[in-house]
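About this split. The held-out portion is used to measure sequence recovery: a designer receives only the structure tokens and must propose an amino acid at every position. Recovery is the fraction of positions where the proposal matches the reference. Here is one held-out target exactly as it appears in the evaluation file.
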């Protein structure tokens, strides 16, 4: 096993192909390094349904216990269930998942006590350095008293906590189709929804880390086609789709049409502001203009951030924000230790829909006010040169402004776009929004032509 872990230690987590890039031997070193860096005397560990997850989690536990930490194993869980365990037990945590990546991948999402994120600048670089050192020189010396390893089931407590945060007592009966994508939503949804006036139609609830039906990535439109068709066939009120580790939730309306995560962000923000008037709401710079508009209309304070959960969580902690949302369907709640939970967002949608008589399409229309392109990726030879070409083309135009908080954002009276470079691939990611569909299409096509032009 190579000591160079740069290919698998990412900005926010560890992720790579098993066993080609990492294995249980390395997982054990990561467990020891996690305890050393967090200075933890106890930790909690969970894992998803991938074939390699139980073995990797057990190895991580051995490494942690070797250095004297007591380990609580919560077994199969969603990522937000691991955050719940970290928050409610007050322990650093590690979740074994590669989210929506293909079956041969696995990874570790780590947090400090209270679900505080561990990223490159908050411990992950140090964990990598220790694991590299130990992989070359041998495992660290064991503690005089090794830690214990015990098991605990947190699913019922997780479900009860989520339901304590949303009033679902008065909702009307709803028919909801849920596509778990053979991921952890198939494990958590039955317990969370138990006893609610919901006629739940399950799709792909069988836990299978080989993803036999489709990728567990609802951000890709092809992966919600089955859900859309089933919602229409069942005459359901809505559909929900979860990703592999069930920390993200996507929504389709009664027509089978996707509901923008920005519209969900605005809807949940309005509900949270009704509970906490004047509160701060975080949104990343790719969410719709609708989000800050709705927040201000509801008496709240919108705060714009870079893309990425570490930036959202950092800003939430700094501002005391009550809620945050991203275009990628990550939703963050102050009542959930500032961590992201798609399941809690789903409960808010069910409460909002079930608390009135109209269809979901009518309900969300108040929060979905503009035409957007969605995220469009372009493979480019030189990200900086392509971005500079776009900036030059719009420079000097009347009423056009620029900012570079995260990539290049260009704003005019009737439209805006953001162009961001991928950190891991030779891609530029484009998001465009405008006041009408025709304007959006014109700007989208202009920018794509510039991005994809050959030098």
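Reference sequence for scoring:
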């Amino acid at each position: 096993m190579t000591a160079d872990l740069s290919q698998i230690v990412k900005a926010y987590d560890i992720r790579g192909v098993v066993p080609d890039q990492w294995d249980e031997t390395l997982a054990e070193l990561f467990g020891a390094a996690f305890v050393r860096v967090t200075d933890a005397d106890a930790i909690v560990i969970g894992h998803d349904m991938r074939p390699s997850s139980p073995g990797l989690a057990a190895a991580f536990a051995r490494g942690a216990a070797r250095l004297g930490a007591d380990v609580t194993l919560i077994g199969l869980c969603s990522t937000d269930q691991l955050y719940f365990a970290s928050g409610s037990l007050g322990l650093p945590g590690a979740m074994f998942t590669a989210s929506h990546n293909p079956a041969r991948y696995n990874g570790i999402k780590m947090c400090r006590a209270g679900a505080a994120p561990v990223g490159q600048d908050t411990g992950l670089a140090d964990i990598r350095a220790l694991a590299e050192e130990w992989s070359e020189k041998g495992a660290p010396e064991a503690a005089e008293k090794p830690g214990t390893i015990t098991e605990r089931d947190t699913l019922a407590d997780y479900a009860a906590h989520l339901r304590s945060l949303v009033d679902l007592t008065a909702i009307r009966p709803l028919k909801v189709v849920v596509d778990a994508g053979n991921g952890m939503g198939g494990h958590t949804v039955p317990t969370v929804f138990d006893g609610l006036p919901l006629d739940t139609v399950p799709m792909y609830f069988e836990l299978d880390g080989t993803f036999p039906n489709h990728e567990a990535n609802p951000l890709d439109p092809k992966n919600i086609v089955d859900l859309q068709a089933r919602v229409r066939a069942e005459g359901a009120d809505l559909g929900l789709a979860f990703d592999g580790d069930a920390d993200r939730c996507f929504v389709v309306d009664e027509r089978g049409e996707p509901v923008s995560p920005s519209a969900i962000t605005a809807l949940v923000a309005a509900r949270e502001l009704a509970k906490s008037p004047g509160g701060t709401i975080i949104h990343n710079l790719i969410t719709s203009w609708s989000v800050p508009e709705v927040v201000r209309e509801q008496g709240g304070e919108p705060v714009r951030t870079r893309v990425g959960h570490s930036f959202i969580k950092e800003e939430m902690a700094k501002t005391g924000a009550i809620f945050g949302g991203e275009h990628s369907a990550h939703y963050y709640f102050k009542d959930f230790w500032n961590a992201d939970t798609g399941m809690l967002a789903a409960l808010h949608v069910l409460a909002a829909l079930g608390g009135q008589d109209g269809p979901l399409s009518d309900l969300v229309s108040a929060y979905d006010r503009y035409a957007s392109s969605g995220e469009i990726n372009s493979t480019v030879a030189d990200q900086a040169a392509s971005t500079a070409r776009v900036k030059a083309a719009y420079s000097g135009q009347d009423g056009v402004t620029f900012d570079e908080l995260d990539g290049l954002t260009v704003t005019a009276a009737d439209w805006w776009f953001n162009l961001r470079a991928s950190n891991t691939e030779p891609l530029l990611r484009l998001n465009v929004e405008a006041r009408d569909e025709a304007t959006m299409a014109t700007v989208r096509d202009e920018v794509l032509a510039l991005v994809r032009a050959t030098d």
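Annotator remark: The chain has a mean pLDDT of 96.
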